[in-house]
Amino acid sequence: MRTRVRLVVGVVAAAVLAGCSAAPAAAPPAAETSAPGASTAAPAAADGLAGMPPVTDPHNVYASAGANMLSDAAKAATPLVYVPETKSGDVRVVDPRTFATVGTYHLGGELQHVVPSWDMRTLYATDDTTNKVVPFDPVTGRPGAAIPVTDPYNMYATPDGKSAISVAEARRKLVFYDPHTWAVQGELPTPDCAGIDHADFTPDGRTAVFTCEFAGRVAVIDIEHRTLLRMIDMPQRNTTMGPQDIKLAPDGSVFYIADSDQNGVWVLDGAATKVLREIPTGGGAHGLYLSRDATQLYVTNRHEGSVSVLDAYTGAPITTWRIPGGGSPDMGNVTADGTQLWLSGRYDRAVYVLSTADGHLITKLDVGDGPHGLCVWPQPGRYSLGHTGITR
């Protein structure tokens, strides 16, 4: 469980690397609860957020992020895995071919996630106790100078690439930044979303859904106008380790929401207006990741050392992969070729590498204390929405 105490510590500003960070997206219906609160890419998708790269396949919004479909920026990156360690204050860098640690960088603070920028040219290690992000050059795998950012527990990028969003969990708000200068563009308070932490976007990029871990609900956000549209309670409001990661189904029909205390996944309709049903998975359901062809959804069950495999379109259970000897699979991602699933072992000072063919454990790596938002880089896709590498 992450440290709840947030220290407001000054951070020395420094050079800012070109590139954006990550954020939310997409559009639902009318609002219930309101609250106040954008380098562009390709032409806008039909009825989508202006400046967002168009959806190429309505049946699969991840169609441009298939196996080895790397952008020019991603092709320039050195294949590496970045492991932020919340307790040690280090980012460990691992060579995915040899499984050897090739660099360990002490950045201090409580490092939560390593987040790819919207343009995929920079990775950012987020630290919510000393209020900074540290850019990493994905070509060299080395860090740059720290950038002051308010309480970045997690980070996302708006689908148009115009804003980086710091998910300020302890302060219950979203802070929008210019992704090049890191000047603050605005803030959106979310006072009823205790534990705001993970997000995903509708296919049109206009609406984002953020989970509220300590409130048993989600916050639905209008990205274009930076307003809170509504709050939606889960049928069972778990408020200790409630709603965690969230993932849009490939066809945009539903959102899947992992709920650790519920030991399963809630299914929210694609318009983000109501919860449709529950899918039991396993103890401590936490992280959500898609297979490279977007047909399967991997659910990490952090408290029982397993991964549930679901049909990404229907949510139907397919199988369960169990880590030998148990473990605490948390956050990570699938490799660019789709053959491996890398996951941090949050409570076991470990990283697990699983085969996506049959779920067997390829290797278990010893790392530092509190490995969390592990980032496998490069990732396929045209742009990044943030977190540990949500790409489309």
UniProtKB/TrEMBL annotation:
What InterPro entries does this protein map onto? Answer: Host-pathogen_enzymatic-act (IPR051200), N2O_reductase_N (IPR011045), WD40/YVTN_repeat-like_dom_sf (IPR015943), YNCE-like_beta-prop (IPR048433)
Name all YNCE-like beta-propeller domain ranges: 257-375
Question: Any signal peptide, and if so, which residues?
Answer: 1-25
* Keywords, sorted A to Z: Signal
Q: Does the entry feature the keyword Metal-binding, yes or no?
A: no
For this protein, the record's PANTHER family field holds: DIHYDRO-HEME D1 DEHYDROGENASE, PROTEIN NIRF
> What name does UniProt use for this protein?
YNCE-like beta-propeller domain-containing protein
Q: State the organism's lineage.
A: Bacteria, Bacillati, Actinomycetota, Actinomycetes, Pseudonocardiales
